[in-house]
Amino acid sequence: MNDVTEPVSATLAERAKRALGRRNLIFIGLMGAGKSAIGRMTAQALGVPFVDSDHEIERVSRMTISELFTAYGEEEFRALEARVLKRLLRSGPRVVSTGGGAYVNERSRRQIKKGGLTVWLNAELEVLWERVNKRDTRPLLKTENPKQTLENLMRARYPIYAEADLVVLSRDVKKETMVEEVLAAIADCKKAETP
Ligand SMILES: Nc1ncnc2c1ncn2[C@@H]1O[C@H](COP(=O)(O)OP(=O)(O)OP(=O)(O)O)[C@@H](O)[C@H]1O
Ligand SMILES: O=C(O)C1=C[C@@H](O)[C@@H](O)[C@H](O)C1
Ligand SMILES: [Mg+2]
């Protein structure tokens, strides 16, 4: 238990950093929720390193996510994702943004839960669709009706994402506002750090 009273002058970022301790902050949520964009800015605000599992997978494999799906299929991609996450989560504190399907995979979910505090960027379909329909880099949305596919993924995944420690509603507000809400959620989080 941390029963040290925070000085009134501590900024939101300082309070969040203290609450996070040595844990990682792990962003989860659907494609377009803002895990990469908001994750990077949150790391800057906290003054801790940022890593993005999709980017790290592309770096180590020297292939794009789309190429990996085409060459090896989703199952192999998930196995690689789990291996990369295990390494990224080894030491904290860091901000780790995951790919949209990572938390849905049992092996990765176990590692993520063990690896730190999870924050789900929860977003409505229209918000996600507006963001993802501009690019065709997401292999799971290369279907006849990608908006319907996105809705199906929401139905299947939202009950699982809901297991996160923290939930922040991702919507069309300034990214800085999103970061502030994430920091406030961490600062108010009652989940104690295990030694
Ligand atoms: N609050 C916001 N307002 C406006 N645009 C946003 C906001 N948050 C994120 N975006 C934009 O939405 C797009 C998708 O965001 P981002 O790439 O961070 O999503 P993601 O959750 O990492 O998706 P994926 O799972 O596909 O990696 C980006 O262009 C990003 O700049
Ligand atoms: O939602 C998903 O399953 C995915 C999301 C992306 O971040 C990538 O990890 C990949 O396109 C799979
Ligand atoms: Mg991303």
Describe the structure.
With 195 residues, this protein is an alpha/beta fold. The protein has one domain: 3-Layer(aba) Sandwich (Rossmann fold), CATH 3.40.50.300. Helix content is 52%, strand content 11%. It has helices spanning 12-20, 35-46, 53-61, 65-88, 106-115, 125-132, 146-161, 175-188; strands spanning 24-28, 50-52, 95-97, 116-122, 166-169. A five-stranded parallel sheet has the order 2-3-1-4-5. The protein is globular and about 55 Å long. The relative contact order is 0.20.
Core attributes:
195 residues; alpha/beta; 52% helix; 11% strand; binds adenosine-5'-triphosphate; binds magnesium ion; EC 2.7.1.71; Shikimate_kinase/TSH1; cytoplasm; Shikimate kinase
What is the fold's blueprint, element by element?
Elements: H1 12-20, E1 24-28, H2 35-46, E2 50-52, H3 53-61, H4 65-88, E3 95-97, H5 106-115, E4 116-122, H6 125-132, H7 146-161, E5 166-169, H8 175-188
Parallel strand pairs: 1-3, 1-4, 2-3, 4-5
Helix pairs in contact: 1-8, 2-8, 3-4, 4-5
Magnesium ion (MG) is lined by residues 35-36, 52, 54, 97.
Subunit structure: Monomer.
Function: Catalyzes the specific phosphorylation of the 3-hydroxyl group of shikimic acid using ATP as a cosubstrate.
InterPro entries: P-loop_NTPase (IPR027417), Shikimate/glucono_kinase (IPR031322), Shikimate_kinase/TSH1 (IPR000623)
